[in-house]
Amino acid sequence: MLIRYWMTMNVVTIDKDASIQDAVRLLRKNNIRHLPVMKRGKLEGIITESDIFEVLVSMTGVRQGGIQFAFYIIDKPDFVREILYILRSYGGRMVSILNSYQRAEEGRCYV
Length: 111
Fold this sequence. Notes:
With 111 residues, the chain is of the alpha+beta class. The protein has helices spanning 20-30, 49-60, 79-89; strands at residues 14-15, 34-39, 42-48, 72-74, 108-110.
C-alpha cells in the first residue's frame, strides 16, 4: 500500500492568545480546515472547523432551548437596549445576541 504525505513549507498558524474571529478569518482566507495554535513558537494544539462550530452553538444558546427571534433593523447606537426593553416588557430574557451585515442594505443589519 502506498501512503502519501502532503506537507507545506508555509504553514498558516495562529497565536494562542488570538481571538476566535481571527481564527475564522484565517481558516476562510486560506481555505483550510485545521489551524495549528502556537505559543512562543511551540505547538499548543489545533483548532478545527468543528471547534469553530461548537463555539457558534455555544454562543447562540441553542442548547438552552427557548425561542429565537430575528430582526432586520436600522443599525444605530443602543439598538440592543431597545430590543432588550421590548423583550423584558413581555417577561423575556436574552441568552445571546448575534448580528450580521451580510446581505443587509447600507445602514441596516440582521440581529
